[in-house]
Here is the input.
Amino acid sequence: MLHVDKVTIQLGERRLMHEVSFRLNAGQRVALAGRNGQGKSTLFRAIMGEVGVDRGKVELDKGRRAGYLAQEVRPPEDERTAVEEVLEALSEVKALEAEVERLIEAMTERPDDEGVIDAYGRAQARFEELGGYDADSRARTIMHGLGFTQARMDTPLSQLSGGWLMRVQLARLLLEQPDLLILDEPTNHLDIEAREWLLGFLKGFEGAVLLTSHDRYFLDALVTRILELELGQLEVYHGNYTYYEAEKVIRRERLKASFARQQKELKAHQEFIDKNRAHPATARMAQSRIKQVEKMDLIVLPPEPPADVKLRFPDTAQSGQVVFRLEGVAKRYGELTVFEDVRHELKVGTRLAVVGVNGAGKTTLLKLLAGREEPSAGTLTLGHNVQLQYFSQYSEESEGESALTLLEWLQAASPPQPPVPFRTLLGCFLFTGDDAFKPVRVLSGGERARLKIARMLLQPGNVLVLDEPTNHLDIHSQSVLLQALKNFGGTVIFVSHDRQFVSELATEVLHVADGRAKVYPCDYEQFRWQQSQAANGS
Here is the structure.
């Protein structure tokens, strides 16, 4: 279906990729992996014809269509609703619908016109063949799976956030059902329920899927092949993401052994050349050896993978046995009730995952716990000696803070003896090299969120309230944060849409839905099982 043949792309002086080749057939689910900045999004855009290639070719089989979901969504230019935008995917259906209506009017005016009657029959048959009569229903089913309420489906695009606009474009693409889906971070902005729905949809999709994602669970459950783009070269791994990680270590060790053997061989050649090139009797042999070396395919070692850094939070005094006590807590905004009658006593050392669909009130509940907002009713009592840290990706820095470099910003928040070197800490969250000397004000929203997580690891606290800390982190950074939180001796209350992160970290689950909050004293997988049993009436 898709043929990428010896593609080379230059960006100025930098060769982004060199002679990259692969094939993709119908039914295959393939992930493109690689560190940030290696060219994954550029390769996607090259496949779609949005950027040119310097050498090589990209071909899609005749009659095949590709659809592309980019990470960045263009702002809307009109007042169409979300569902109207999704239905734009069915342009032929829309055109046929208008044609059928026109022909009905024509038949009313000229009931004996055989040409009009025949044209109407053909148009109506094609309209039915394309599923025109249930197009709206199919669009709304897809949108519901991605987390849209009926009200949000009918909301003008201009009133939707960037995350919801991305979901609109994803829904449009899924309704269109091209032969090849190219998805650049489709799990961004999706809650766990929407990710589960998308996973099921893609498993049943008859075409091919090529995607990137930082959701390990999603990749493990979906893909059967990994294409790794590293230093301009493409390496193929026949398995899911977990297989890829293990196999990559094995291949790297083999490559290092081959590199060492080649270096030993090159050293021997060089010693022979140095010894013999100056003597007339042996100069020809030395020259022959030089040509032999020139013909060798030199092994180049890729950079070492990120160090397996074990971060830890600074030591601090323990809180009391009860961290929070909620008694009949409610939160309302005007006439809108977010939740009510929340009752729970959170014990020290608990790692509580707050789950629920987007808009259920998870962030609002975390704001109450962090003291950023007050309950509308009921009482929320903070326990003895609670030292709380709150992470929200949406909090703003002061003007003075924004003028600091990343390094200065961390230093300003650090204790005298930081638990980890600042540059090492920045590297764990994807800031490398001269990034440390950038001013905070030039960072994107995602980069600021990563920097705030890094700073959090320098500040003492015994209760952490974390609102989506895994957003904007790659899989390695998620793993570093996960291990630090698992080794943390205090209490953690968190929201995350990454299933593996939640499954490995949570010891209790608080489910927010339909204005209520219920605590499940179990891990996340047990909670999922209980939910499925309840849904099946067991």
About this structure: The longest helix spans residues 241-276. The radius of gyration is 29 Å. The longest strand covers residues 322-333. Residues 94-129 form one domain.
